[in-house]
Amino acid sequence: MLWFVGVLAGLAALAPLLRLSVQSGRARLAAAAAVAVGVGSVALCTIYAPARAPRRDDRPLEVLADGHVGSAACRSCHPGEHASWHGSFHRTMTQAARRENVVPDFDRLELDWFGESVLLEWRGDELWTKFVRGGARPGPVERPIAQLTGSHHMQVFWYSTGVGRELAPVPVCFKLEEELWIPLTSVFVVPPELRDPPEPGKWNQSCAMCHTTDARPRVDIGRTDTHVGEFGISCEACHGPGADHAAANRNPLRRLAQRAAGEDDTIVNPATLRPARSAEVCGHCHSVRILRERHFDSWRDHGSPFLPGADLQSSHLVIDTDDGDAPELRQQLRQSPEFFASSFWPDGQVRLSGRENSGLRS
């Protein structure tokens, strides 16, 4: 803003030059002085203009790729749909940890976590946490909070570990309806003796897949450089990449023709898909599923291969009662023997909330 004011002052000061040829010597001198002041103001404002905040290298980054254009590109042609989505919990599923996004109002909190202290405090405009974590990487933590997950039932606070763009959860979360702080493990289906929160990197490798749009984990040994197309669940999570659609519909005549026809082959509309395919658009996140073995390597850099309108079962194993011999499931059970007990009731009904597509298949 400072540089803009300076430019206006400079331009105003240049106006007297237009009258130099018809003014007296004294007037010319005054005009020249005014010009000098204006030019000096522009120079000072340029020198002292506030610099843009540097891009943080210690937290996931929003980078549009692979034909994604972002929700802002949809607004001009679809204002009603954009407004509806903007007010939804999907949009706010992942947010930057800014004061306006944090639901509980506080400056400093010291919370109890099974008899241990967990500190949350604002240091200027940045939220920090301090506690001692256990698990596979135990030790003291004093780090800035980078992101928030959830805006409907609870908010989970994720701090930057300082290892690339890796995030780890604060061991307590805020239940929105009850307005209570509780241990994070209390909201998941886990054995009661498990107290430590998920290990560092869980957001990058798992949570981001459904809590952002076009998540690319970009993880490997010694590397965590997670990029996403957009924080939160935005338009392209359900409609697919929008670059071709946006480019084709720059022509207003085409837009009118497509709307009259009620279809557009440059974008996916779940409402016009066959029922099973339409349900799978949601099922990509709202099911108990495992990535197919052949996609394990490409997933590290490119994330999920599923795009809306495709066959979900071709890229993911959506667990059913007859999948016991699936190689993906056998590997999952080797890593997490309690996988079935935490995901399904003994009669095969899905146990986890938010897995409606699995319920449809049962």
Question: Could you explain how this protein is built, in words?
Answer:
Helices cover 32% and strands 21% of the residues. It is globular. Helix 1 (2-14) packs antiparallel against helix 2. The longest helix has 24 residues, at 25-48. The protein has helices at 2-14, 25-48, 79-86, 202-211, 235-239, 243-248, 252-261, 275-283, 296-302, 312-315, 327-335, 339-343, 356-361; strands spanning 61-62, 94-96, 108-113, 116-123, 126-133, 139-149, 154-160, 167-169, 172-175, 180-183, 212-216, 219-220, 223-224, 227-231, 289-291, 316-318. The model is unreliable at 1-24 and 27-53 (pLDDT under 50). It is an alpha+beta fold and 362 residues long.
Quick tags:
alpha+beta, 362 residues, 21% strand, nine-stranded antiparallel sheet, 16 strands, globular, three-stranded mixed sheet, single chain
